[in-house]
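Inverse folding, one chain.
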């Protein structure tokens, strides 16, 4: 399975990464040099598993033919955080 290392500075960024991982069925593993988070749950306890044969191309064209703009998508996804 391919691996990627992601470095983050805040617990808020880590929470966003966890939410994104859930959407794409990605496993997040805690490394030995990671600082423990304030959340008492262990990363290994999260119900996230990685698909056996992930295919990012399956998402191609999901917005095709819909009456929505990139700006509207960003507004719905990020709200007032932009």
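Residues assigned per position:
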């Amino acid at each position: 399975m391919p691996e990627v290392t992601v470095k983050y500075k805040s617990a808020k960024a880590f929470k966003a990464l966890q939410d994104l991982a859930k959407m794409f069925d990605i496993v997040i593993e805690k490394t030995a040099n990671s600082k423990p988070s304030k959340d008492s749950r262990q990363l290994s306890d999260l119900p996230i598993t990685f698909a056996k044969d992930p295919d990012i191309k399956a998402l191609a064209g999901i917005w095709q033919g819909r009456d929505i703009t990139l700006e509207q998508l960003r507004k719905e996804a990020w709200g007032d955080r932009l």
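The chain has a mean pLDDT of 77. The helical segments are 11-24, 70-78.
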